[in-house]
Design goal:
The structure is a single chain. By secondary structure, this protein is α+β, with helices and mostly antiparallel strands. Helix content is 25%, strand content 19%. The protein is built from three helices and four strands. A four-stranded antiparallel sheet has the order 2-3-1-4, with helices on one face. The longest helix has 16 residues, at 2-17. It is rod-shaped, with a radius of gyration of 36 Å.
Length: 150
Amino acid sequence: MRKIILYVVVAATVMWGGCKHGKKAQVAPQPPATEIITPLPPEQPPVLIGGYTKEQIYFKVQIGAFVVPVAENDVFFTHVSGEEIRIDVSPQGLYRYTVGHYNSYEQAELIKTELKRRGYADAFVVAYGYDDKRIEMPMPELLKLYNGTK
């Protein structure tokens, strides 16, 4: 408390009475204050996986690929009746049959395991973009990019 009173008395003396010999304290001119602006690092572009961002990708399980289309009532579809089955044609002209629409690879892997148990021994997970186009990339390579690992 004593220090505060001392500071107030000194400040008042300098302001009203000046310094020794009756001169007022002079304040030396100061250069204008400068503000240092640190630029933000440039925003990194999103990683594209087959032309899609991670958020634009979903997964399906492929249960078969054939040279000729399979009839809807074929015995091949017995163990997936009631599920949505999509057909697309590969660049080589094969009719590829897929099941599901999963937002994570892990989810699709669980379904793949179940479909293998039902008799689709060759089932595997595939990736598609938001526009329903298949991402033609080996899954290990796709997953490295998808999971951000090198």
